[in-house]
Description:
The protein is an alpha+beta fold and about 350 residues long. Helices cover about 45% and strands about 15% of the residues. Strands 9-10-11-12 form a four-stranded antiparallel sheet, with helices on both faces. A three-stranded mixed sheet has the order 1-3-2. A three-stranded antiparallel sheet has the order 4-5-6, covered by helices on one side.
Amino acid sequence: MDTIEHWRAVAAATGWADRSAAEAGLRRAYTEAGLAEPARVIWADSPVAGVAAVRALSDPGRSVREAVRTVPWAAARQRLFAELGADGWNQRWQATGGQIWDSTRSLAERVRLGVIEDLLGPFEPDDDTDGAARQARAAAEREIRVVLLDAVLGQHDAPWLAAFDDTAELAGLAEVARHAGWWWPFEHAVVVCERPLHLQRDEAGRLHSGDGPALVFPDGFALYSWGGMPVPATFLTELSDLTPARIRDEENAELRRVMLEYFGYERYLAESHAEPVHRDETGILWRIPLPDDEDVAMVEVVNSTAEPDGTFRTYWLRVPPGTRTAKEGVAWTFELDAESYEPLRQT
């Protein structure tokens, strides 16, 4: 397995941590930073439990995250930058960590947001929510964020570790990342999290599941997501019973888009008794008005090449809401305007 595939697998790894290997990595990271090994290692079954464990620590000493992670990280990057130059460093990053940076960073941020909501509960202030309640919520959230930002991300540091794969002074950090999740280093104690037991993503690398949580940790902390968008746990159970009326009645525009995607635009058009707004030689333009949201515009096109059974397959193309004609919509899919779109042969 090459370097990037190895670290891609580390970032997405699930299953119980190898605690002995992770703890060996912790000790090495402390030693490499010139620190005494921590007296205690506390394991937590999720980042939620990890935050709770950190907040409950008695006399852990100061945080040593800077010495354990930040300083060796910066030194390794400076040395590589001096060796490779700006262009060489950029090429190395693009060939390694850059390939998994976006998906891993977004996953880590989703975990952070999920931890905050799990610990504080959902908060949807309205006009009647008083200022004191808002300030108390903000203060509690800041406190949790401070703890979260003090974590070393373990497996979710994979993009950076991929760029420094052969750097000796980061070997301890790399060993923890291969075998465990997030961790908090202090002078006298370390809190280490288990990895998730289940992770499900779509082809774009976004958290995604239509029939349950997309991310689950051993203690039950879970994230529900559709195409990277957070959704309530109860939302997914309703998808199988959707109707056009239920979709129209959904007040949350983002959830309504998820419903439409799951239900299917073609089916929605048919069951809503929608009327076409334009026809021409390229196809039929349909528009779905949605309350408090932009319209959904679709062009219905028929493949000019017959299938083996002699039928002609119909396709639905999502186009910008302001599309005025079917031809304009089809042209847009080819990054052309309607006047420039003159296909010699439709396929």
